[in-house]
Design goal:
Layout lengths: L8 H14 L5 H13 L6 H4 L6 H15 L4 H5 L1 E4 L2 E4 L11 H9 L5 E5 L5 H9 L4 E5 L3 H13 L8
Parallel strand pairs: 3-4
Antiparallel strand pairs: 1-2
């Protein structure tokens, strides 16, 4: 007989949120919900639908691992492998910094002036360069980073957002 307690999705989420709150995570309920959706391989908007259901053991194990990592402050975006920026989803990893919400202000300022060419030093995930090119179809750009892993991540994001032909 297994000693693993079977929980509903709602119970698991409540327990996870309490654990994250105790670890000092800023928005534990949101993180618990996003990570449960990721563990269950569903959209976050569908978590409510599975709330009364018992968690499948595989989902429960994945969820436990995600919550344990979040409790030690691994960013949610790194656990999910993506982050939304300026209305687009960008692939992220431990090899790049998370695009910050305030960086969207930079995009707004840049888009306020006409441009044909963009240089992004410290490319990271490529969110700035890719977004500027996606918003300005006639522009081209050059991204530079010391990290090969970051350049690969940015290249993947350029492909994802169909601007790869205009980026070096």
């Amino acid at each position: 007989m297994s000693s693993v307690q079977v929980l509903t999705a709602a119970q698991a989420m409540a327990s996870a949120a309490a654990r994250l709150r105790a670890a000092g995570v800023d928005d534990p309920a949101r993180d618990a919900r996003l990570l449960l959706a990721h563990a269950a391989r569903i959209e976050a908007s569908r978590v409510t639908l599975i709330a009364p259901e018992e968690l499948d053991p595989d989902v429960a194990e994945r969820y436990e691992q995600l919550i344990a990592l979040r409790a030690v402050r691994v960013p949610v975006s790194h656990l999910l492998g993506e982050r939304e920026f300026y209305g687009r989803r960008f692939k992220v990893s431990k090899d790049v910094l998370d695009p910050r919400p305030e960086t969207e202000t930079l995009i707004e300022v840049a888009l306020a002036q006409p441009f044909e060419r963009v240089l992004d030093l410290g490319l990271g995930s490529g969110c700035i360069l890719v977004t500027l090119l996606a918003e300005t179809p006639q522009a081209t750009g050059l991204g530079v980073d010391l990290s090969e892993a970051a350049c690969l991540q940015a290249s993947a994001n350029a492909l994802l957002h169909r601007v790869e032909a205009r980026i070096d």
